[in-house]
Design goal:
The complex is a heterodimer of chains A (about 900) and B (about 290). Chain A is α+β, with helices and mostly antiparallel strands and about 900 residues long. Chain A has 23 helices and 39 strands. In chain A, about 30% of the residues lie in helices and about 25% in strands. In chain A, β1 and β2 form a beta hairpin. Chain A starts with a helix and ends with a helix. Chain B is mostly helical. The longest helix of chain B is centred in the middle third of the chain and has 35 residues. Chain B starts with a strand and ends in a 6-residue tail after the last helix. The chains are: A alpha+beta (about 900), B mainly alpha (about 290).
Chain lengths: ~900, ~290
């Protein structure tokens, strides 16, 4: 019972037309969308505990500990944040690792966030010792798996500052089993004083990020030692011996031999702070110690660029799965992977990345080298006094200068003309993919040691030059010596026809350069670029799975939409199929429009049209005439009953409709075409041979004359009407259906129309004329069907409905005379006589009309008129008038 | 038997008038002629031919746009670099509105206007089978849409070449492309622009079978395009915007790089064709059983 109610409700919800296949298709789409959202938002809960732990020399460390429920003893991961960050910077990756089944500990390094202590730049007895304390704590956690008592199975990952501490901790503490250092340094002196040149802009930015303590605006939370080293360097632009010693001691490079755990080295290509050579040094050192190494050159870096954190997070999980959980498979990923630009996502304007991979790390020297000559001769270069204006390459943290420099009138790689020298190769005959650090021989002549800045440009055929990744390499050159200098490592494709250009400048915004004016003469030797053919693109730029699934799914859904039929109530066919020579037989026809409630437009209508008949379909407005004709034309579908034209059941587009000519509910023409074009194109639209059209006689009937060649939109209503009649008669259809054909015709045309129809039927064809006007049908029809409120009222020959010819109306001056009636009725040959309002209704038998008149005159009846009694009007009103 | 009837193979009963074949009803040629004389068709072609010439005149009078700001040149600043550059620029300015409106017009108006003129019922009673009617109308509407895109590209290319010469194409990202590749790339661009507009056409066509008001169908399809454009500007929607049809409308700019990248265009076409197929299926299904009372 309940299900029944439910079903009924569902049905009423769906409405009268069931569109469940459409609904199913829509639901499928929604389901796909939901799945997509769901996979993006993993629901596994992650538990987090915040607590302070004690680091080395009693420093309080603010930590968060992430675990997911269940799973027993598991490996742990320590996540270290970058410079200026806190433990919360690592929240996202911590959750991800926790869901993947790790116990994850994040902490704010000393000097950052809520942790105590001062920033010692990953000092061995400070930050690095802190990690040891964290390991002690992890070893005591019951859910953390251990190798032996006090030695947890633990990995460590971190970016930048946090990446360095993971290297240093792995060197100092043997309990760490795998590391993922990313975008970090190997040699702090080398990155802050490359070739002895102070990287002043970056250093200033980094130092500024530690100045968070208002009580000490000068040194902030830095240790006194670090603070003073920075201040001395910033003032002199050089590293003194103490600073050099400090930075080297703080560098992972100092403990190169002791880092022997599996390391996934992630380094950024857009990174002027910690360039690719730092990651290269890490990878070489760890590999020398015999531990597995994978190198991943991400597209971004400290200068900005594309966000690949999602991929790197996933790869970190894979790395730890392989080296901490000892899971099989290729979770560790390729040994060497380089992110390359795969074009721009034009929707968002962001670059899409693809991944080139190789089974071994090819390093900065590549697997092959190509040497090319540079064309320009020796050039002179001026070092402007004070080192200004500096040439501009990248700005730390901005990546590209296009926004900023554009605003101040400088393009990226802007150089003062007299302060740079350029050496260009011949155009490339084929594309060249450079992977690694190009080198070039430079000979510098100067009155003292020179500080120079070298860049490798990509020069297009139109002379437009771009500086890959906006990287620059500082050079210190000794007078008269030829040195081979290394340019910044890149992965860049030079297209065919492009040239490579070395630009040497005397200043750079990011670096401290000598303030004394000087003139250098510079000669360039050969340029050597490394290539790595082993790298091939295996991860193409993000075509998501739905790119193929969506069209395929749509095709399947479309097939379903087109083939799955809603359950159709079988239309009861008339048991007696009409013979093929009956032009029209309608049986039990019923139609109720959607939304019209219980009101039937047509109800149980049956009638037949024989050949040669002109059938009048008569009824007041709203009787269902037009609905019947619409069904007859296959425009709408009956609820039940059948319509057979020449024995063929009519459906939408039934071929037998080609034997039907119709004019229903007014004309329908293309207003921009002429009458003739309309008729012509209509006939051609039927696809039938032109010779069958018989358009000339039809157009003659329309009688439009020259108007035929005017656009239909200039026609009057009557002209359109006549053209429509002509259209209905095209091809001399065996059954002609005309709906209110005389609307808009003048009396002469109406008369002509009647003649045409009579002649038409005389050829053995049949005509149906519908009208609400009695006079129209009674004059030309042989048969009548009277309808009212959707139902048949009467059908038959006109005479049968209107009454027979034997009934005469005698108009008398003295109506309703009973006595007279009796006398007339008594006349020989008169069947009956009835007094009526207008006079006398006489049914004649054998008596002829003249004889009757003679008799009436003899009886002194004042006959005013005499004629056949046309009862149709009465019949019509009587028939339909019942309940009105 | 009346002359002019044919006999069914079985039973000997006359089925249809002589020479009537359902598959031959409403031939494409006839439908193409019926649509061609319409003012909207001619006006559209006129606009498409005039637009490049107007832009050309504007550049001539107002002077070539420059890219003195030093950044990577935008498409507009290199529009006068060569004929193909100009053509690319014309397509760029037409992609967002002119072409979608045109396609929506052809596809959205085609059935609804017949209903509005009442000529639909006479076609159906001719009889043109309903699926056949939709098929002819769809093919012709899509053909006119394609013609418009091609015409725009061709006129822009010819006019641009006449004004700025035939030569290397300067690329918006810097660099240039040899002239030998230009025609191939332009074909890809025109093909993609057309493919990405299929969704507008299909939505318009579907609406056209639903409503009797041509303006409603065209407006509905254009409205969808506008709403999609607005939503696409809301970056907060994130990756969900990938499923907006307008998200990929400029993906063809990827051909104006030294190396074509196909990813964005593949996604754009996938989305467009998938939506188009679905909406067309709904159009055919809905029209099949529709009560035509217009």
């Amino acid at each position: 019972m309940k299900t029944h109610t439910l079903r009924r409700r569902l049905r009423s919800l769906r409405g009268p037309r069931r569109r469940w296949p459409a609904a199913a298709a829509a639901l499928t789409l929604v389901a796909v969308a939901l799945t997509w959202t769901a996979t993006a938002d993993d629901p596994t809960p992650v538990h987090r505990e915040d607590r302070f732990l004690t680091g080395a020399d009693g420093v309080r460390l603010d930590t968060s500990y992430y675990t997911s429920p269940g799973g027993g003893r598991r490996p742990a991961v320590i996540l270290a944040h970058g410079f200026g960050g806190t433990k919360d910077s690592e929240r996202e990756q911590a959750r991800r690792l926790a869901r993947a089944g790790y116990a994850v500990l994040t902490y704010s390094a000393r000097g950052f966030g809520a942790s105590g202590g001062r920033i010692g730049l990953n000092a061995a007895d400070g930050e690095v010792a802190d990690v040891g304390r964290l390991l002690d704590w992890l070893a005591g956690r019951p859910e953390v798996r251990t190798d032996r008592a006090g030695d947890p199975v633990v990995g460590m990952a971190g970016g930048s500052y946090g990446g360095a501490v993971s290297l240093l901790a792995a060197a100092r503490d043997r309990r760490i089993d795998a590391i993922v250092p990313s975008v970090t340094y190997w040699d702090l002196h080398q990155v802050l004083f490359p070739q002895g040149v102070f990287k002043k802009l970056w250093s200033g930015i980094l130092f500024g990020q530690g100045l968070t303590d208002p009580r000490d605006p000068e040194c902030g939370r830095f240790t006194a030692e670090v603070c003073s080293a920075f201040q001395r360097s910033a003032v002199t632009g050089r590293a003194d011996a103490r600073t050099r010693e400090l930075l080297r001691g703080l560098s992972p490079a100092a403990s190169a031999r002791r880092i022997s755990v599996p390391a996934l080295v992630v380094q950024g290509q857009t990174d002027s702070l910690f360039p690719l050579d730092q990651g290269d040094a890490i990878a070489q050192a760890v590999a020398r110690n015999g531990a597995p190494v994978a190198v991943d050159w991400i597209s971004g870096g400290h200068d900005g660029g594309e966000d690949e954190s999602g991929r790197i997070h996933a790869r970190t999980v894979g790395w730890f799965d392989t080296h901490l959980k000892k899971a099989g498979g290729d979770g560790a990923g390729p040994v060497f992977r380089v992110s390359r630009s795969g074009g721009t996502d034009t929707g968002t304007g962001t670059a899409m990345l693809e991944g080139a991979t190789a089974a071994r790390y090819t390093g900065l020297d590549g697997t092959a080298r190509r040497t090319m000559a540079l064309r320009e001769p020796e050039q002179t270069l001026v070092n402007p006094a004070g080192g200004t204006p500096p040439s501009v390459t990248g700005l730390p943290g901005l990546g590209s200068l296009s926004t900023l420099a554009g605003a101040v009138g400088m393009g990226p790689g802007w150089e003062s003309r007299s302060a740079n020298a350029a050496f260009t190769s011949a155009p490339l005959d084929a594309p060249l993919q450079v992977t690694g650090a190009p080198t070039v021989e430079l000979t510098v002549r100067a009155n003292r040691d020179a500080v120079l800045f070298a860049k490798l440009y990509d020069v297009g055929p139109d002379g437009r030059q771009t500086l890959p990744r906006e990287l620059v390499a500082p050079v210190t050159a000794v007078d008269g010596e030829t040195t081979r200098i290394s340019l910044p490592a890149v992965d860049h494709r030079f297209e065919a026809g492009h040239r490579l250009r070395i630009v040497v400048s005397s200043t750079d915004l990011g670096f401290a350069s000598p303030a004394d004016p000087a003139t250098y003469r510079i000669r360039a030797g050969h340029l050597t670029v490394p290539t790595a053919a082993a790298l091939s693109v295996t991860e193409s730029a993000g075509v998501p799975w739905w790119t193929w699934a969506l069209p395929a799914g749509a095709v399947v859904a479309a097939v379903l939409v087109l083939t799955v039929r809603r359950p159709v109530r079988p239309v009861a066919s008339a048991p007696d199929a009409a013979p093929s020579d009956v032009p029209l037989r309608i049986t039990g026809l019923t139609k109720r429009y959607a939304g019209s409630g219980d009101r039937y437009a047509v109800r149980d209508l049956s009638f037949t049209v024989e050949r040669g008949q002109v059938l009048g379909l008569l009824g007041p407005n709203g009787a269902g005439k037009t609905t019947t004709l619409r069904m007859l034309m296959g425009l709408i579908r009956q609820d039940s009953g059948s319509i057979r034209i020449f024995g063929q059941e009519v459906r939408s587009g039934s071929p037998v409709l080609s034997r039907l000519g119709s004019f229903v509910e007014g004309p329908g023409f293309l207003p921009h075409l002429t009458g003739r074009q309309n008729i012509d194109l209509y006939w051609r639209a039927t696809g039938r041979p032109e010779s069958d059209a018989h358009s000339e006689p039809a157009l003659r009937i329309a009688g439009l004359g020259t108007a035929l060649d005017r656009p239909v939109r200039t026609y009057s209503q009557g002209m359109r009407q006549r053209l429509a009649l002509a259209q209905a008669m095209l091809g001399m259809p065996d059954l002609l259906v005309l709906d209110e054909p005389t609307n808009g015709l003048d009396p002469a045309q109406i008369r002509e129309m009647r003649d045409v129809l009579t002649r038409y039927a005389a050829t053995g064809r049949s005509v149906i004329v519908s009208s609400h006007l009695l006079a129209e049908v009674e004059q030309c029809c042989t048969h009548l069907v009277v309808m009212d409120r959707g139902a048949l009222v009467a059908a038959g020959p006109v005479a049968e409905i209107t009454g027979d010819d034997g009934l005469l109306l005698v108009g008398t001056a003295d109506p309703e005379d009973e006595g007279l009636a009796r006398k007339v009725a008594a006349l020989p040959g008169v069947a009956s006589a009835t007094p009526v309002e207008e006079g006398l209704l006489v049914r004649v038998g054998s008596i002829t009309v003249p004889e009757l008149v003679v008799e009436l005159v003899r009886m002194d009846v004042a006959v005013e008129r005499i004629g056949p009694h046309r009862r149709l009007e009465d019949a019509f009103l009587t028939l339909i008038g019942g309940e009105r | 038997m009346t002359p002019g009837t044919q006999t069914a193979a079985e039973g000997g009963a006359p089925v249809a008038a002589t020479g009537y074949r359902p598959r031959r009803a409403l031939p494409l040629r006839v439908e193409a002629i019926r649509q061609f004389r319409r003012r909207r068709t001619l006006v559209t072609f006129g606009i498409v031919i005039a637009l490049p010439l107007v832009l050309l005149t504007a550049f001539t009078i107002g002077g070539s746009p420059t890219d003195d700001d030093g950044g990577a040149p935008a498409l507009v600043s290199i529009a006068t670099a060569s004929g193909p550059n100009f053509a690319a620029f014309v397509l760029f300015v037409s992609t967002s509105f002119l072409l979608p409106v045109t396609v929506a017009l052809y596809c959205g108006d085609t059935v609804a206007s017949e209903a509005g003129w009442s000529s639909l019922r006479y076609l159906l009673a001719a009889p043109v089978p309903r699926a056949r009617l939709l098929w002819s109308k769809l093919v012709v509407a899509l053909a006119y849409s394609a013609l418009t895109v091609l015409l725009l590209a061709a006129v822009a290319l010819v006019a641009g070449t006449a004004a700025y010469g035939w030569g290397e194409v300067r690329l918006p990202g810097g660099g240039s492309m040899p002239a030998s590749q230009v025609l191939g790339r332009m074909a890809v661009v025109a093909g993609y622009v057309y493919g990405s507009l299929l969704v507008v056409g299909a939505v318009g066509f579907w609406l056209s079978t639903v409503t009797d008001a041509p303006l409603g169908a065209v407006g509905g399809a254009v409205g969808l395009w506008i709403v999609s454009t607005i939503l696409d500007a809301v970056t907060a929607l994130g990756r969900a915007r990938d499923f907006l049809p307008t998200h990929w409308q400029y993906a063809w700019l990827d051909t104006l790089q030294p190396r074509i990248t196909w990813a964005a265009m593949a996604q754009g076409l996938a989305l467009s064709t998938a939506c188009a197929v679905l909406f067309l299926a709904f159009a055919f299904r809905g029209f099949r059983a529709k009560d035509v009372v217009s």
